[in-house]
């Protein structure tokens, strides 16, 4: 149950060392390492090529067509945070642009993830301020209705609690619960190491069929080769 019009000032952020460790891994690796959990829906996309981010969530619940709470959230941002905004109902208006990005950057924000629209894309690219959004839209918003800041929000089907780790790159956005951040960082490192071993074998021309022992199970299911 959401209480509208609430700003929580105290956030239990994930351990900084774990956030730093997670920042070295791609979204696909983190998602797999976490047991295939935490992925936002794939309609959330970077607004410019090469955008990527990793940081702790300051969450925002927006009202459709209203960006007031993003200004309220800016005050709660600390160095290394990512603003993560959901909406009470679907809205693709341009909630965020270059001016708000300038404000968030001054507060130490690493970027924005928003289940809504974003504008001023060329400016954001020039600033290299990473934004991941559901739409790009020039349509402006008003400042009239209360939402909330630093409450649990559902953003593109993923639950985000304030202080969770957000990792985003060209493959999507994944949410790592703050308490799991150290363990998921370690699992990601193990996964990367294992993949490097496989990569070497693939480079040498070995087939997945042999590497993963697939031939037996395929034969059991009746796969036949015809010349």
TrEMBL record:
Q: Signal peptide location in the record?
A: none
Keyword Magnesium in the entry? The reply is yes
Q: Name one GO biological process term.
A: phenol-containing compound catabolic process
Listed under catalytic activity are: oxaloacetate + H(+) = pyruvate + CO2; 4-hydroxy-4-methyl-2-oxoglutarate = 2 pyruvate
Q: Which InterPro entries match?
A: LigK_PcmE, RraA/RraA-like, RraA/RraA-like_sf
Where does this protein hold substrate?
97-100, 119
Annotated Pfam families: RraA-like
Q: Where does Mg(2+) bind?
A: 120
Cofactors named for this entry: a divalent metal cation; Mg(2+)
Taxonomically, the superkingdom here is: Bacteria
Task: Give the enzyme's main class according to its UniProt record, as a single word.
Answer: lyase
Q: Fetch the SUPFAM superfamilies from UniProt.
A: RraA-like
Which UniProt key words apply to this protein?
Answer: Lyase, Magnesium, Metal-binding
Q: What is its EC number?
A: 4.1.1.112, 4.1.3.17
GO MF terms here are:
4-hydroxy-4-methyl-2-oxoglutarate aldolase activity; metal ion binding; oxaloacetate decarboxylase activity
Description of how the protein assembles with itself and partners: Homohexamer.
Record-stated family: Belongs to the LigK/PcmE family. Belongs to the class II aldolase/RraA-like family.
> What does this chain do?
Catalyzes the aldol cleavage of 4-hydroxy-4-methyl-2-oxoglutarate (HMG) into 2 molecules of pyruvate. Also contains a secondary oxaloacetate (OAA) decarboxylase activity due to the common pyruvate enolate transition state formed following C-C bond cleavage in the retro-aldol and decarboxylation reactions.
- Descriptive protein name: Putative 4-hydroxy-4-methyl-2-oxoglutarate aldolase
């Amino acid at each position: 149950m959401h209480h509208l019009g609430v700003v929580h000032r105290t956030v239990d952020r994930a351990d900084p060392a774990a956030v730093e460790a997670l920042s070295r891994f791609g979204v696909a690796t983190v998602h797999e390492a976490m047991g295939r959990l935490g992925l936002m829906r794939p309609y959330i996309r970077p607004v410019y090529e090469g955008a990527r981010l990793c940081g702790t969530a300051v969450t925002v619940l927006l009202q459709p067509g209203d960006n007031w709470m993003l200004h309220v959230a800016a005050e709660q941002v600390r160095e290394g945070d990512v603003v993560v905004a959901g909406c009470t109902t679907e809205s693709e208006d341009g909630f965020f642009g270059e001016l708000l990005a300038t404000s968030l950057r001054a507060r130490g924000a690493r970027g924005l993830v928003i289940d809504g629209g974003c504008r001023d894309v060329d400016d954001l690219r020039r600033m290299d301020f990473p934004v991941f959004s559901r739409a790009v839209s020039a349509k402006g918003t008003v400042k009239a209705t209360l939402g909330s800041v630093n409450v649990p929000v559902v953003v593109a089907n993923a639950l985000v609690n304030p202080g969770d780790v957000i990792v985003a790159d060209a493959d999507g956005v994944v949410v790592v619960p703050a308490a799991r951040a150290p363990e998921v960082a370690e699992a990601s490192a193990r996964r990367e190491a294992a993949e490097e071993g496989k990569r070497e074998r693939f480079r040498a021309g070995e087939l997945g069929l042999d590497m993963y022992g697939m031939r037996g199970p395929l034969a059991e299911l009746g796969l036949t080769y015809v010349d």
